[in-house]
Amino acid sequence: MSEIDDLKKILHYHNHRYYVQDDPEISDGEYDELFRKLSAIEEKDQDLVSPDSPTQRVGASPSDKFKKVKHTKRMLSLSNAMSADELNQFDNRIKKDLNITDTEIEYIVEPKLDGFSVETVYEKNILKLGSTRGDGDIGEDITNNLKTVRSIPLVLNNNIIERFEIRGEVVMEKKEFESLNKSRSEAGEQLFANPRNSAAGSIRQLDPKVTSGRKLKAYFYGLGSVAGGMFSKHEEILSYINIIGFKTTEYKKCRTIEETINECKRLESLRNDFMFEIDGAVVKVNDLSIQAKLGDRSRNPRWAIAYKFAPQEATTIINAIVLQVGRTGVLTPVAALEPVNVSGVEIKRATLHNIDEINKKDIRIGDTVILHRAGDVIPKIIKVVESKRKGSEVRFEMPEKCPICDSRIFKNENETAYRCLNPECTAVIKEKIKHFVSRRAMNIEGFGEKLVDQMVDNNVLKDVSDIYYITPEKIKFLERMGKKTLINLFNSIENSKEQKFESVIYALGIRHVGDSTSKSLVETYGNIVAIINADKDSLTSINDIGPEAAESILNFISDEQNRLILKRLKEAGLKMKVNLAEVKRPLLGKKFIFTGTLSHFTRLSAQKRVEALGGRTVSSISKNMDFVVAGENAGSKLNKAEKLGIKIINEIEFKTLVQD
Question: What are the chain's domains?
Fold first, then answer.
């Protein structure tokens, strides 16, 4: 079989797994690589292009489970750009086709939602038909299922139009996806590979009640056939469909290809801040008359392209499962993987969380798995590709003893975690120290993992307080410990004594006590003596401290060894109190919501700033809101806020509000 025939066969197989069975075996990035390889071969020799080639179809043939629907106007897919160079090539092709090499083209850039394409048809403003994209010409009738998606209006809020066709994407938000997979795992059902896969599986249910329970959302981005002359720009379409009741994503108008490339890169840097998955940015010519001149290819329009972000998923093999011991003694199974590149980073390990997670997902040594990595988040295994099993895979079982200190491990009946309870376990000591010196805690530069390991192995450090009693004589024999390194390390240790009291509390690594809880403890009690003398009722009266966190704090401060550590840290000069009169929480109890694009903040950094000043951020508008922060291209939330009379501020006003 020739290479091209082999590629066609492989792509047809994976198309069927993806579109028909809703159970992909490879990641999007791996599929795109195969598709681009086939396209490159066909471009070199057009005689090799055949009607059955995957490059000649948009999606997949509609399923026999649903009634067929013929689209009035073909639903196309988009060609892909994988780099800034390819976006420049796209722009140059358009200018060449239009013979306007000295004129800039205006583009609209939108987030590319990683969801499931649909079309809704309205007759005299009433929703009459909903369908999948299918193969582009013929889709599946999923009208009753789409009616259960609450963000899709059943009646349009506009002047009556005889027939109106609008196209969009059904998505499942990340938090809903996690919740759905958790419930499916507990029920022993097959897991979805990603939110897009779950949206597709949910919208193509034969029973609309199942779809209704999946909490889907739909965002719309364009029109099918509609009365001509209504619009001259794509941005007008986006504005109009939002006004008449549809959800739209943020978008930006760019006047040059350089602006367009910068906006694509900006969206990529913010991809993990979105509530739903985005896998790229869509670039469209804004002028509809230019779109019409450029026209379409058989599979995609000439006037639009998708800038694809680096893939966050890949398939790989589990070579082994090892146990890591954390600072609280928890034994965490970790998969040792066949190295694979995800988002430009070589991944060799992925957390498996706990034995229950392994059993629920039926993860075995030797399995082929789909791996996901989002930003700096630790990579995790989404699902096992069971069709790849050969029968030689091995189930993992928890040992009876700690792999580091050989002490018996313990499991509380109320927890899923197994723990090493030996306080002298070197793994526990190392992890406590690594947490203590980390940037978010005491921020002691030069204290890398290897140095911590050396110091513990050579009995230089037995707990975190020993850091402040190190002398040059004790460590000068360690590897790579030259004079300059010693000076920098001791300067960094000395500088860490200026860290805030709340940073010291966080650095102690008390279970269930993170940044926010550390800050609450400091602002409530003011000094370490008051915290040590606190009781459970006092602790649980604090807003973000529940019974479990209170119990953990009490266990920590009642331990004699921990009290000795606190005493030594105080004697070493660390800050163990704060002037409560100087504590500033001006936004205490205030609720914020953000809409549109911010220029001076990422969405995440803006939310953290609010929380640091005592406020809260929420995702949906209600009459109990205090502030709506409206950025560029603010959406429907702004309209709703105006109707409810909620105070609306722009980004400059927000910046003034949260500045120190």
Answer: 3-56 (1.10.287.610), 68-308 (3.30.470.30), 313-419 (2.40.50.140), 426-581 (1.10.150.20), 591-658 (3.40.50.10190)
